[in-house]
Design goal:
Layout lengths: L18 H10 L4 H11 L3 H6 L1 H5 L2 H5 L4 E10 L5 E12 L5 E7 L5 H17 L6 E6 L8 H15 L8 E5 L5 H15 L20 H19 L8 E4 L4 H12 L3 E2 L1 E4 L2 E5 L5 H10 L4 H8 L3 E5 L10 E3 L9 H9 L4 E3 L8 H10 L2 E3 L1 H4 L2 H14 L6 H25 L6 H19 L4
Parallel strand pairs: 3-4, 3-5, 6-7, 6-11, 11-12, 12-13
Antiparallel strand pairs: 1-2, 2-4, 8-9, 9-10
Helix pairs in contact: 2-6, 6-18, 7-8, 9-10, 9-16, 9-17, 10-11, 11-12, 13-14, 16-17, 17-18
Bound molecules: glutamic acid.
Length: about 450
């Protein structure tokens, strides 16, 4: 799916007390609409906590939480296979380390800029808090476009990127992982360069590593599996399950692929996947082995999938995957891919549950449509937290020099997703907004970070 153009975020629900805080965020971070959107969405839900905890206001906890601890921007020069020199820009926003080392992925995509990285790092702070583990929030990346690049070019880019970034990392300081455009191939090149520069085999400095060199079982699957497990928990709360449900998934990257796999394991029929060119509808249900072959092994397009799949699948160039009627929608591509019109179409077609596998894929207006229609809506910072939670399990294994089985890692992931669901559900109830997972996730994440910051003094 193409992300729709970000617009200035209108805020309907900011309390008068939080208006000036948001105004200051706008003033200090000009031209960063995604960051404004992410902050606004959290601030809109915090008034009840602040009413209950006035000490957070005196300590200026909200102002502090909206300001990153550190932001790093650097030059990344590299040469392509023909010897041409390219200059990209690298970023790492170390947003909040009250709960643990900065933790969050790296995104390589031409759309990456400081505002995008900042919004992702802000979201990550609350998401990581929701996992209940000791990880702070950070995010990084580059405007480098990996599309069509050879392995050798990817390697040279990753080596140049790490040659600057390494000095900011460490298992107790900052621990990156993958995101869009960064998978185990890139993590391998980054880890190799870190090891070479520092002369340390420091497994805990990156997560998403290969299984033979410190990676965790189930990390590859974790974000997608977790988002479906979260969906199953939301359905369970209203007496339903995934069996026999029609599911629409957007995207065809790591999150989408493993969401499709888990939804199918739980008996759902997954009809779609997509990329920036268009989407596929497969009446027999997506053939997950073929999709993995096309996307993971051949780095192809979903149109290639449709061509090879035969008569059950048709490819729609452009268009919106959200036009396909379904019971459950799993936006798993990128930010702002599901707007108010798409949300209205889904509601008209009878959608019961929506869970965000991607980070902030639903626009604020889209979220409003779902909430008003009473659709169970799992925001990304809760629904897609399984990836980073399993990264924390990888760090735990690295620290103890342990290697867990797939079953062990997947069991822990399932427990964590249940706990995140229950914490959002209970928190929403406690603050008078039963069934509102957006409020539940924001408040539960905020409370944990704010308590830690308050306890640690003015830093
Ligand atoms: N990029 C993933 C996310 O959005 C995972 C980050 C990690 O494992 O550190 O949560």
């Amino acid at each position: 799916m193409m992300a729709t153009q970000p617009r200035a975020t209108q805020h309907e629900g900011l309390s008068t007390m939080l208006e000036p805080v948001y105004a200051e965020v706008l003033r200090r971070n000009p031209g960063e609409p995604e960051f404004h959107q992410a902050v606004c969405e959290v601030l809109e839900t915090l008034a009840p906590v602040l009413a209950a905890r006035p000490e957070f206001i005196d300590a200026k906890l909200i102002e502090r939480i909206c300001e990153p601890e550190r932001q790093i921007i650097f030059r990344v020069p590299w040469t392509d296979d023909s010897g041409t020199v390219h200059i990209n820009r690298g970023f790492r926003v170390e947003f909040n380390s009250a709960l643990g080392p900065f933790k969050g992925g790296l995104r390589f995509h031409p759309s990456v800029n400081l505002g995008i990285v900042k919004f992702l790092a802000f979201e990550q702070t609350f998401k990581n808090a929701l996992t209940g583990m000791n990880i702070g929030g950070g995010k990084g990346g580059s405007d480098f476009d990996p599309k069509g690049r050879s392995d050798a070019e990817i390697m040279r880019f990753c080596q140049s990127f790490m040659t600057e970034l390494y000095r900011h990392l460490g298992e107790h300081t900052d621990v990156p992982a993958g995101d869009i455009g960064v998978s185990s191939r890139e993590i391998g090149f980054l880890f190799g360069q870190y090891r070479r520069i520092t002369n340390r085999w420091e497994a805990g400095v990156l997560t998403g590593k290969g299984l033979d060199w410190g990676g965790s079982q189930a990390r590859t699957q974790a974000t997608g599996y977790g988002s479906v497990l979260f969906t199953a928990e939301m359905l369970k709360a209203s007496g339903e399950d995934l069996h026999g449900q029609q599911v629409v998934v957007s995207g065809s990257g790591n999150v989408a692929i493993y969401s499709i796999e888990k939804a199918q394991q739980l008996g759902a029929n997954v009809l779609t996947c997509s990329d920036s060119g268009g989407y596929v509808v497969d009446d027999k249900g997506i053939d997950i082995d073929l999709l993995k072959q096309v996307k993971e092994n051949e780095r192809g397009r979903v149109s290639d999938y449709a061509e090879r799949r035969g008569s059950s699948a048709r490819y729609v160039a452009g268009g919106s995957v959200w036009d396909v009627p379904c019971d459950v929608a799993l936006p798993s591509a990128t930010q702002n891919e599901l707007d108010a019109d798409a949300a209205s179409t889904l509601v008209r077609n009878g959608v019961k549950a929506v869970a965000e596998g991607a980070n902030m894929p639903t626009t604020p207006e889209g979220v409003r449509v779902f909430r008003q229609a009473g659709v169970a809506f799992g925001p990304g910072k809760a629904a897609n937290a399984g990836g980073v939670a399993t990264s924390a399990l990888e760090m735990q294994q690295n620290a103890g020099r342990e290697i867990w089985s797939f079953e062990q890692a997947e069991d822990r992931l399932a427990q964590i997703m249940r706990a995140i669901h229950d914490s959002c559900y209970r928190t929403a109830e406690r603050y008078g907004a039963p069934g509102d997972y957006v409020a539940g996730a924001n408040i539960a994440g905020f409370e944990r970070v704010a308590e830690a910051m308050a306890a640690q003094g003015l830093i």
